[in-house]
Design brief:
The chain contains 8 helices and 7 strands, in the order αααββαββαβαααββ. It is an alpha/beta fold and about 240 residues long. The chain has one domain: Vaccinia Virus protein VP39 (Rossmann fold, 3-Layer(aba) Sandwich). The protein has a 7-stranded mixed β-sheet with strand order 3-2-1-4-5-7-6, with helices on both faces.
């Protein structure tokens, strides 16, 4: 039986087979002209520019390497994904020429259990993974914090619980209203249910899980072609 920490990777490995990975990689080319995708690329490049030196980078749930080409100041790049088929496609990512001679290491593994040495990276980022396919929890935050060097940064997106893509039956709408108007001190359990324990994440949830380990540098909302997202850059405390 799969453990709680492995079931997310097991599911991804089974869903993202060779056929899916080829279709996903073809979508990378189609997204090249999408304004929302370019906005993410620009955002990721701006995160890299917060450093004044070449940096070691980890892409959590890198898939086909869709966002590799947005990186700047790269000394080395590691991509971690649960699907070997997706990583096969990541060996030929969109706009691969923009990486130049950057050393790229691709690893099949589960972000919930894979071990990297402490202080391995300057930047860890995850786009379209946390609070979407994998829950954003304090244990995830602890793992990422341990992989970062002092003053390293963690950049990630989430699916916001107010995204139009999230079903909002009457009970959920009422719960959302109550969560917004009642004091946070008495809505903790209600809020956790609204974000489904981290499978979605709003500003309140993000701030809560990052507390004590990271200082939030920027937190905004971003509309992609699929979801309303939270978009975060946090600095290791």
């Amino acid at each position: 039986m799969a453990t709680d920490t492995s079931r997310w990777a097991d599911r991804a490995a089974s869903l993202y087979d060779e056929s899916y990975a080829r279709r996903y990689r073809a979508r990378d080319n189609e997204l090249d002209a999408a304004p929302s995708n370019q906005e993410l690329i620009d955002w990721l490049g701006a995160v890299c520019d917060r450093f004044d030196r070449p940096i070691d980078i980890l892409d959590l749930g890198c898939g086909t390497g869709r966002y590799f080409w947005g990186l700047r100041r790269v000394a080395s790049l590691t991509g971690l994904d649960a699907s070997a088929a997706m990583l096969d496609e990541a060996r030929r990512p969109v706009h691969a020429e923009r990486l130049g001679d950057v050393a790229v290491r691709l690893i099949v593994g589960d972000l919930m259990s894979h071990a990297f040495p402490s202080e391995s990276f300057d930047l860890v980022y995850a786009i379209g993974v946390l609070a979407e396919h994998v829950p954003l929890t304090r244990s995830t935050i602890e793992r990422v914090h341990g992989w970062l060097r002092p003053d390293g940064r963690f950049a990630f997106t989430t699916v916001h619980p107010q995204s139009p893509s999230v079903a909002r039956p009457p009970a959920r709408r009422l719960a959302s209203i109550a969560n917004d108007i009642l004091p946070a001190s008495i809505t903790t359990a209600l809020h956790e249910r609204l974000v489904v324990g981290g499978m979605y994440a709003d500003e309140r949830w993000i701030a809560g899980v990052l507390r004590h380990r990271f200082a939030i540098e920027s937190l905004d909302r971003f509309q992609s072609d699929v979801h309303l997202h939270g978009r975060v850059v946090a600095r290791a405390a």
